[in-house]
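A student in our group prepared the protein record below, which I am reviewing. What it holds is a sequence and that sequence's fold in token form. My question to you is simply how this chain folds and whether the tokens agree. Do not assume that whoever made the record got everything right. I have pasted the whole thing underneath without changing anything:
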Amino acid sequence: MTIIVGYTETPASRAALDFGLDMAAKLTMRVVVVNAGPGAEHRAESQLTRAEAEQLEQYLANFSVPTELRQYSRGRSTADEFKDIVAELNPYVVVIGSARRSGFSKFIMGSVADELLRELPVPVLSVKVPEASVESNAKE
């Protein structure tokens, strides 16, 4: 079986990745890390740079569970990319990071996490950033 982890270069995504890797080790599953954004002509903030992707690949190599990094930037929404990946892999769970945003910013910007929670036909686990990480990021 497979655990899919949604990933961007954020503390929330790192928390989700670490949780997904730990879960995969305990359940003897593989992890597919997915970085998906609209792409096309303009690189979205959610898309990893080449250096970030290489750094992530090196990080994943340190774990005993099988891992794979997939990046998509085909001009489609992140939710549509995830729906297709879920249909292909039929994962045990999709793990995503949860960022703290006010109701107004969620309303204005929308929320990929909210859309994934509502629309994916498999369990979606939302992982919060540990409080110590939130506090240290706020100080920086």
Observations:
- The beta strands are 2-6, 30-36, 67-72, 93-98, 124-128.
- The domain at 2-131 is CATH 3.40.50.620 (Rossmann fold).
- Residues 59 and 71 are 16 Å apart (CA to CA).
- The two ends are 39 Å apart (CA to CA).
